[in-house]
C-alpha cells in the first residue's frame, strides 16, 4: 500500500523560456510553530556508507515554466510528486517520445493550486496541498490542463479522475543535516524544499553551483532536491522556471548554504490500491489550512521489544531473556534484540525494523562500523526485510549488532572476537543504553515501538 516516496518537486510541464526578470514564486512559508508540529521523517537505515552521488532526475518529468502564476506549490505536489510516484506505482512512462508528454500520465498543478489559493493568485502553503492529495488525489493533466487563468475553477470530471491517485501522508525532513537529506535520496525519495531565493540564484548560469546568496531577496519558492554530488559539494534541484534556466531547468545548491536558504523540507508516501470514493468538494473561497499531520495507513502497526541484560556477566536474579549473544554467522559477540511486530491488513510492501541506540541521557551512541550506522553516524541495526502481501501479520523479529560496532566505554577491548574467558570478578564498565525500534515500510518510518532500557556491561 505504501511504496515509493517522493518529497515533492517544483516545476511545470510547459517548456517555454524563463527569463530572470519574469520568474514567479508562490510559496507561503509555514509558521514555525505549525511546521514544528508536523512529525519528522525517520532516517532510513542504509547499512553502509552513503555513496558519493545520487541522481533521481532521470525519473522526473521534464522541467517546465510556471509562467506568471504563483503556483509553484501546485506544480510541486501534483505535477512532480504524483508523476514521480505513479511512474513507479503504475510502471509506466510519461513520455510518448522526445519532447512529447503523455498528459494522462502527468498530473495537473491547477487541480491542487486552484483549491488552496483562497480565490487569489497569491501563492499557497505546502500543508493544504498535501491534504488535497491525501483526501482527493491528483487529477491527470489530460483531465485538467494547466492554464494561468482562471485559477479557481475545478471541473467535476477532474475530481473524479483524481480519486485513484492519492498520497498516504507526509513528514518533514531534517534539512539541517545534509546526510539525512542524502539518505532519503539514496532510498529514492526526492525531498521537496521551500527556499529563500536571491537575484544571483535567478541568474544562475548553466552548470554552476549556488555558493552564496548575493543581491536582493526575491521570494520564497518551492523546488525539489533530486540528487547530490559530493565532488560538487552540492544538492541538485529541479526548478519551475523553464528549461532555459540553469542547466535545462536544473540547478545546484551548495551544502554550505543549504540550511541557510531552506525553510522547509518534506517527503510524502504514495497510497496504492486506492478505492475511488467521492469526497466532499472544497469551498474555493476558504483556504485549506489543516496542520494536523495525517495518520498513515500502517500507523496502527505495533512493535514490542523484549527486555535484556547485555553483559559478559548478568545477575541471575534479573528476569531478562538472555545474557549476551555470539553470532553464528560473524563469530562476533554482541547485542541481539527480539520482539514482535503486528502489521494490519491492507499494508503491502517491504517491512524492516530499525533500532537506533542512545545513552539514557539522550546522547546518540556513535557507530564504529559503517554497516551499523545511520547517516548521522548514530549506531543502529536492522532486521532483514519482510515482504507484506496485505493480509496482516504478527511475527517475531530479531536484530543483531556486535559490541565492537558501538562506541561505548568498555573494560575489555578484543575487537569483534569474543574475549573469553572473562576473569572472575573482572570490573566491567556499565553503560545505560536505550533502544528505540521503528517499523519502516518501503523505507518510510510508519510506527515506533516502546523504548527499551538496556544495561550494557563490557
From TrEMBL:
<dbReference type="InterPro" id="IPR025660">
    <property type="entry name" value="Pept_his_AS"/>
</dbReference>
<feature type="signal peptide">
    <location>
        <begin position="1"/>
        <end position="20"/>
    </location>
</feature>
<feature type="domain" description="Peptidase C1A papain C-terminal">
    <location>
        <begin position="50"/>
        <end position="269"/>
    </location>
</feature>
<dbReference type="InterPro" id="IPR038765">
    <property type="entry name" value="Papain-like_cys_pep_sf"/>
</dbReference>
<dbReference type="GO" id="GO:0008234">
    <property type="term" value="F:cysteine-type peptidase activity"/>
</dbReference>
<dbReference type="InterPro" id="IPR000668">
    <property type="entry name" value="Peptidase_C1A_C"/>
</dbReference>
<dbReference type="GO" id="GO:0006508">
    <property type="term" value="P:proteolysis"/>
</dbReference>
<dbReference type="Pfam" id="PF00112">
    <property type="entry name" value="Peptidase_C1"/>
</dbReference>
<protein>
    <submittedName>
        <fullName>C1 family peptidase</fullName>
    </submittedName>
</protein>
<keyword id="KW-0732">Signal</keyword>
Amino acid at each position: 500500500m505504501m511504496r515509493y516516496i517522493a518529497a515533492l518537486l517544483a516545476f511545470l510541464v510547459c517548456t517555454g523560456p524563463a527569463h530572470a526578470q519574469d520568474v514567479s514564486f508562490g510559496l507561503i512559508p509555514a509558521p514555525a510553530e505549525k511546521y514544528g508540529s508536523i512529525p519528522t521523517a525517520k532516517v532510513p537505515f542504509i547499512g553502509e556508507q552513503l555513496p558519493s552521488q545520487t541522481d533521481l532526475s532521470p525519473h522526473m518529468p521534464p522541467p517546465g515554466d510556471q509562467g506568471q502564476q504563483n503556483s509553484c506549490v501546485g506544480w510541486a505536489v501534483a505535477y512532480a510528486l504524483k508523476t514521480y510516484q505513479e511512474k513507479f506505482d503504475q510502471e509506466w512512462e510519461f513520455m510518448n517520445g522526445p519532447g512529447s508528454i503523455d498528459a494522462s500520465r502527468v498530473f495537473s498543478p491547477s487541480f491542487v493550486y486552484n483549491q488552496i489559493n483562497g480565490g487569489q493568485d497569491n501563492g499557497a502553503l505546502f500543508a493544504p496541498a498535501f491534504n488535497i492529495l491525501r483526501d482527493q488525489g491528483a487529477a491527470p493533466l489530460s483531465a485538467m490542463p494547466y492554464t494561468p487563468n482562471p485559477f479557481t475553477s475545478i471541473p467535476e470530471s477532474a475530481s473524479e479522475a483524481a480519486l485513484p491517485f492519492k498520497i498516504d501522508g507526509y513528514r518533514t525532513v531534517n534539512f539541517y543535516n545534509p546526510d539525512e537529506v542524502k539518505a532519503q535520496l539514496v532510498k529514492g525519495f526526492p525531498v521537496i524544499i521551500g527556499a529563500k531565493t536571491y537575484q544571483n540564484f535567478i541568474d544562475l548560469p548553466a552548470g554552476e553551483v549556488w555558493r552564496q546568496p548575493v543581491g536582493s531577496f526575491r521570494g520564497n519558492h518551492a523546488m525539489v532536491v533530486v540528487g547530490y554530488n559530493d565532488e560538487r559539494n552540492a544538492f541538485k534541484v529541479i526548478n519551475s522556471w523553464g528549461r532555459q534556466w540553469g542547466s535545462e531547468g536544473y540547478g545546484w545548491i551548495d551544502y554550505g548554504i543549504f540550511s541557510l536558504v531552506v525553510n522547509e523540507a518534506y517527503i510524502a508516501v504514495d497510497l496504492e490500491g486506492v478505492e475511488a470514493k467521492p469526497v466532499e468538494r472544497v469551498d474555493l473561497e476558504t483556504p485549506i489550512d489543516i496542520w494536523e499531520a495525517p495518520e498513515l495507513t500502517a500507523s496502527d502497526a505495533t512493535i514490542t521489544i523484549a527486555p535484556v541484560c547485555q553483559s559478559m556477566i548478568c545477575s541471575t536474579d534479573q528476569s531478562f531473556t538472555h545474557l549476551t549473544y555470539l553470532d553464528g554467522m560473524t563469530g562476533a559477540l554482541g547485542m541481539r534484540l527480539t520482539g514482535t511486530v503486528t502489521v494490519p491488513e491492507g499494508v503491502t510492501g517491504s517491512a524492516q525494523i530499525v533500532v537506533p541506540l542512545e545513552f539514557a541521557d539522550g546522547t546518540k551512541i556513535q557507530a564504529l562500523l559503517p554497516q551499523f550506522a545511520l547517516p548521522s553516524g548514530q549506531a543502529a541495526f536492522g532486521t532483514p526485510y519482510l515482504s507484506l502481501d496485505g493480509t496482516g501479520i504478527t511475527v517475531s523479529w530479531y536484530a543483531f549488532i556486535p559490541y565492537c560496532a558501538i562506541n561505548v566505554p568498555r573494560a575489555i577491548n578484543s575487537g569483534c572476537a569474543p574475549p573469553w574467558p572473562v576473569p572472575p570478578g573482572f570490573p566491567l564498565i556499565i553503560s545505560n543504553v536505550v533502544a528505540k525500534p521503528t517499523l519502516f515500510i518501503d523505507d518510510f518510518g510508519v510506527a515506533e515501538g516502546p523504548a527499551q532500557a538496556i544495561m550494557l556491561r563490557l
